[in-house]
């Protein structure tokens, strides 16, 4: 530890985010996240303000949950919205190529003026631009997107990494949180009854974690590379290094049924239980046996 103390634990989980200071220790080599050349504006607006505008009310009057998104293909800019906080607020994300003026170092996010946002979304309909000028509880901020080469293992000794520390997701499919929930499900199943003093059992469970999570996590991380991810040169070959399951058609839109089935319909509880049943190790096996 920083103060010189040593601490011994049965299992250490590293989940300190995209800017993890520990992931290189797990990987065994430098694995720093680097900027991907894309950024996003994010802000919240009140649904009351949205519904006060007739043209926006026509868009958001449906009670159906989910995303509403628009794309400016000429400038490779997308505008995505979804309700949050019990439907009282609208979360807005505008993804775009990073501007030269947005290059502050060492900051997770920074405030940005509405004028800067309006310049970026010039190609969108005027009805959407109204949301840029609506009051926001803490203003508009921009966030840089980061990338990191896929890891071949999330485990070292009795340490495992999960979340953005293990795989830095871009928000293309909004799957970062979902994939972390999957990893948490794997942890629950694999370690709920293991004897932590049994070294053989622990190593087997950690290997199972890699076997379950490397394919899913790296698939989703690579899929977040962009809206046309499967059309990118060499992308399928990169994915197949880790993942052998089904893929959507190359031209399937990001939120199409084919993409949703691959990225969101996975049952990690079921997958972990199945693997555990196949590779069952009696908990009474003596250490070192």
From TrEMBL:
UniProt cross-references to Gene3D superfamilies, sorted A to Z: FAD/NAD(P)-binding domain
Alphabetized GO MF terms: FAD binding; monooxygenase activity
Keywords: FAD, Flavoprotein, Monooxygenase, Oxidoreductase
Domain FAD-binding: 6-216
Coiled-coil portions: none
Family as reported in the entry's similarity comment: Belongs to the paxM FAD-dependent monooxygenase family.
Protein name (Swiss-Prot/TrEMBL): FAD-binding domain-containing protein
Organism: Staphylotrichum longicolle
């Amino acid at each position: 530890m920083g103060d010189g103390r040593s601490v011994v634990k049965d299992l250490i989980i590293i989940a300190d985010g995209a800017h993890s200071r520990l992931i290189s220790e797990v990987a065994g080599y430098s694995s720093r996240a680097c900027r991907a050349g894309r950024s996003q504006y994010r802000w919240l607006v009140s649904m009351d303000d949205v519904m006060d505008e007739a043209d926006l009310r026509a868009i958001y009057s449906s009670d159906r949950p989910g995303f509403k998104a628009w794309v400016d293909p000429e400038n490779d800019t997308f505008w995505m919205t979804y309700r949050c906080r019990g439907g009282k607020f609208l979360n807005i994300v505008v993804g775009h190529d990073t501007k030269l003026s947005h290059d502050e170092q060492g900051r997770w996010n920074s405030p940005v003026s509405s004028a800067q946002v309006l310049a970026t979304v010039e190609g969108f309909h005027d009805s959407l631009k109204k949301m840029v000028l609506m009051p926001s509880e803490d203003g508009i901020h921009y966030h840089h997107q980061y990338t990191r080469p896929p890891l071949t293992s999330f485990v070292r000794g009795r340490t495992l990494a999960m979340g953005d520390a293990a795989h830095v997701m871009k928000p293309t499919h909004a799957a970062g949180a979902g994939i972390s929930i999957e990893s948490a499900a794997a942890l629950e199943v694999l370690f709920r009854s293991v004897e932590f003093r049994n070294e053989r059992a622990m190593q087997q469970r950690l290997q199972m974690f890699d076997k379950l999570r490397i394919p899913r996590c790296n698939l989703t991380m690579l899929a977040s590379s962009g809206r046309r991810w499967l059309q990118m040169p060499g992308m399928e070959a990169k994915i197949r290094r880790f993942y052998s399951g089904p893929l959507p058609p190359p031209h399937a839109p990001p939120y199409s049924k084919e993409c949703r089935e691959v990225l969101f319909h996975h049952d990690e509880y079921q997958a972990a239980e199945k693997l555990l049943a196949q590779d069952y190790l009696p908990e009474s096996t003596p250490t070192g046996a």
